[in-house]
Amino acid sequence: MKEKILTNVRIIDPSQKMDEIGNIVIDEKGKIKSIGKKSGTSKSAEKIDLKGLIAIPGLVDMKAFVGEPGFEYKENFRTLSQAALAGGVTSIVTMPNTKPIIDNVSMVDFIIRRGRDKAKVNLFPCASITRQKEGNQMTEFGLLKARGIIGFSDVNKTIQNTELMSRIMNYASDIDVLIMQHVEDYELAKNSCINQGEVATRLGLQGVSDIAEKIIIERDLSLLSEFPCRYHINQISSKNSLNVIKKNKSNGIKFSTGVSINNLSLNQNDIGEFRTFLKLSPPLRSEEDRLSLIEGIKNDLIDVIVSDHIPEDEESKRLPFAQAATGSIGIETLLSLSLEHYHNESLPLEKIIRCLTINPAKILKINKGTLKEGSDADICIFDLEKPWVVKAEELKSKSKNTAIENRKLQGKVKMTLLQGEIAFAI
Amino acid sequence: MATAKKVSAIKKTPKHLLGIQNLTVLEAKEILTEAKSFIKLNRGSSKKLDVLRGKTQINLFFEPSTRTQSSFDLAGKRLGADVMTMNMNNSALKKGETLIDTAMTLNAMHPDIIVIRHQDSGAPNLLSQKVNCTVINAGDGRREHPTQALLDALTIINRKGNIEGLKIAICGDILHSRVARSNIYLMNMLGAEVNVIAPKTLMPKGIDNLGVKSFTDMKKGLDGCDIVMMLRLQNERMQGSFLPSKREYYEFFGLTPEKLKFAKKNALIMHPGPMNRGVEIDTKLADDINVSLVKEQVELGVAVRMACLKLYCK
Known about the structure:
- The complex is a heterodimer.
- Chain A has a single domain, classed as TIM Barrel (Alpha-Beta Barrel).
- In chain A, helix 1 links the parallel strand 6 and strand 7.
- Chain A is about 30% helix and about 25% strand.
- In chain A, the strands form 3 sheets. In chain A, strands 1, 2, 3, 4, 5, 16, 17 and 18 form an 8-stranded mixed sheet that branches.
- By secondary structure, chain A is of the alpha/beta class.
- Chain B is of the alpha/beta class.
- In chain B, helix 1 packs across helix 11, helix 2 packs across helix 11 and helix 3 packs across helix 4.
- In chain B, the strands form 2 sheets. Chain B has a 5-stranded parallel sheet.
- Chain B is about 35% helix and about 15% strand.
- Classes of the chains: A alpha/beta, B alpha/beta.
């Protein structure tokens, strides 16, 4: 590969507190050679002028579902990486709720091999915390980690058994593995498909109170003070949960928290008359909750924004609301939808980018989400002002269940580089 | 005075009857006025009209029903439609066919009206997006049961002359009740004041935002009420324990002659049926023709459904 030099670009890299106009020099191996306004030049290098655009580290999405194996008709490695690259995402943490579930070493070998062959992005697979996600028996954390598993999550299921959870944390603390919990009490959430309240009452749907989320966070953080391990709350959705997080953080408990871009940008009223693409878990809650989540990002109580990309085919969504599948796609629109919070002045640009790059990379302990010299040249280049309208049929995911169809967004990815190579460009 | 040509409020709107929430006051009143004209017809000896001659009506019932199903059946037939009733408890759905597939199959037979009862809230809305005939909601999950509310309104108007200014209590399992929801919307729309009475575990969250006052004390809730609507305890929808026992429920929320005294002197009782005698209502009270409107509700149900079929079938 020839050396490349990206010129006249505004570089925002929260990992080195950089926000300046300058150049990025990429060496033959696809690493960052120098960066910033003082960065050098090279005569032989291929020059790309990016005047008026912004370069940030390639995004790290901590929660996405790829259909392989078992659900190839919803999404596969190829379509997921196309969607990701079009959205500036270069590193993806994939969820283990495939068929079969990724809960043993042989599955890991398969998924890593398959991902290497078919995907064009950096994949970091998760395994389930418990066998078959059944919440009974922990998986082989040590062996799985040694084979390349980045973290452990039962995805849409919560470890309900308190004794087991305490043992998981205790065991995990010794071998430095990351536990990513979906926080929801089963009994309180049973049969629910929407936030409890007026909207649920009008639609005649079974609602779930945010107490279901809060109670598991409280339980887990109590256990965590006893068994300090690397613990991450996958997604929170309510103000009440934030209050618990705040209290525990000020007591010195160490953990990290994520939020889905959907919960940051939509509320329960958007469900309208049974729009099943907005049936999500955790559910969309009140506007007050949504605003509190934005505050949570501002105050560093929330560390990560995820796409919670869940491709679902039309058949699974074209059902009465209670029966319809949960989740929406979002990896391709993750950055653009996040930028909405910059454009409407609810969050600073630096903070948004931090939550999409270096923060998740730090939690995962991977050398991504940064443009420091020597790191891989995974770069997302976007036009901050470019207006566009989300059209499901134009999105690259195999499934088209976007929660923000027809939404007018501002800011669009122009080019994505993966290890110095242009992997996507318009 | 020259009589202006009668203008229907319903023509301009979507042709489905999915819920009271989607109705305007004008539309609701038009249905009630139309229904009134059928009461006499139904009491006469010759009950057949040919308003819907040549039209096909399919009753698609995914949930067991006695009165609503037979009422829609009769209503369609009396208007001259060809009526087919499908009980979906034991058909293709059991073989894995989805609601939409079933709907598309039936749609291919060119019906003019589909009347649907379904256990999932929102099923009629989904159906209405996929078929090209009129969809009438005969009860979906715990969301709406518009024709029940309309027949309740007609029954009240028939007895009291008007709904505006009345005070109406709805008492019982509000949480699981589509009848309660539809009645709350309609009675509010027609100018009544609505109280809902239920134990806390059967009171849905956010109900106050629907424009009602909520009570857990039946005596307070009944105070000054002209109409007392009792609801059935929907045991089939209850998962887990909502109440200690039926005995305790009857003690605090069952309608007895003693409790009825807290309402207005000439208060009337209604019940959408089927009744659990001795659980939510005293059995003698239920049969007392001086205060109970239960039989009238069933009778006027046919008239209301005839009106809906006529006005919505284009």
